[in-house]
Structures are given as structure tokens and as C-alpha cells.
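Milestone M4 deliverable, item 7.
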Amino acid sequence: MILVNVDSLSASELRSIAVQEGFGNADELSREEIISLLEEKYEEEDDKAVREGAPNSRYMSGLTDYRDIGRYVGDLPGVEELPLSYPDTEIHLIKKDSSWLYAFWSLSQNDSDELQDAGGSLSLSVTIENNGSREEYDIPVSFSDSEWNVGIPCGRGFCRVALTGVYPNGRKNVLALSEPEDLIESYWLEHRNEMKYSDSLYRVYLTLVSTKEGELPDNPILREIIEMFRKEDGADE
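Output delivered:
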């Protein structure tokens, strides 16, 4: 099942979906009119599913599911079927948030066969340059892996990840190298005293990173700020 948020689609994509859903006058409708008609149709389908005891596949307002992927999805503008694997060895990074990067890669069959025939293994070689310092470490991965989450600190610098072949004699061979992904600077880590000595500002910041139950999430930036406060308070005693 593929879920599509109709509010995020272009007019061309919406018209294509409207035609698939049986609206013959889609070319004459505005983007807003199509969204309204589609949402009304899906709400009716959901009501029918509830009455008939069928499972409800709608998890958010304005979502639809494609029931015949092979027939419909390939007809959407700009959509093409992804291959099961890629012929080249490549690795890429996508920033998820200030603390995590998503690494994904493909390993060509030739590189995989050569490395495995030699009894070698794979690893992700992570390099982080932050505020003038450099950190390097390896993450062992298997030949069946194709993605990984990489933790990063806040600061001024970048992170780069290499897909590396490791041979039994210890030799390493970089198979693919990602483009560098910039780290994200945290204003409050460098201006924490502004928050520390302003109760209202501190409360506002905590509200932004607190759950509705008042609990603090597992936020590495917040942990670092609070730890700095504790060290400074201990030093003042």
C-alpha cells in the first residue's frame, strides 16, 4: 500500500489521481476543487469500510491508498519504478535532524563478489570535523545492509561517510565516498548563559522540547546544555 498526502501534490498529480478515481471533468477543476472532491470520496469510502467492518486504512485526514500499484502509480507524472538494486557502488547522506544523518548506499555486484571472495567485510568509515577537531570511527555493516543512521554533534563543520572494504590483512579500500553534510549550529550551546539567567527564557525553551505530559524527550542538545549548567553550578559551590 502507498499512502499519498493529497494536500502536498501538484495540480498535475491531483488531476491524474482524480481521473483514476473516476472524475471525468478533472481537467476543468481547480487544484482546491480536486482536493475537496478526493477528500469527500475517501471519507465516504472510510464510512463504508466502518459500516461493513472492513479495516480502515486511513491514518490521517486527506490520505488515500493505491489499491492497484502496478496500474496506477506508474502513470503518475514523474513517477518511475525503482530497481531492486543499482549497478554502481555509491553512498549518500540525508540530514534527518540536528543529531542524525541517514546514510544509504548501493554495492555493485562486482565489488561485492571481489570483497567476499577475498574474505573481506564492509564498514562505514565516519569522519566528523567540528570546530577544528576531527573524529573518525568505523561502523561494521553486513553485505545485506543498505542503510544506517549516523549520530552527529551540533557545531561548525561537516560529516562525511565512506563505504569501505576491509580485507583480512587489515588493508582498507574506500569503495564510495559521500558528499559532506554540514553540521547544524546550536545557538543556545554557545549562548547558554542567556538562558541560564533568564527564568522565562529557560521555561520557553523547555516548553518547546517537552511533551504535553511535561516530560523531556531524549534530546542530545538539551542534555548537553543541562550538563553544562550542572558543571557550572558545581564549580560555583
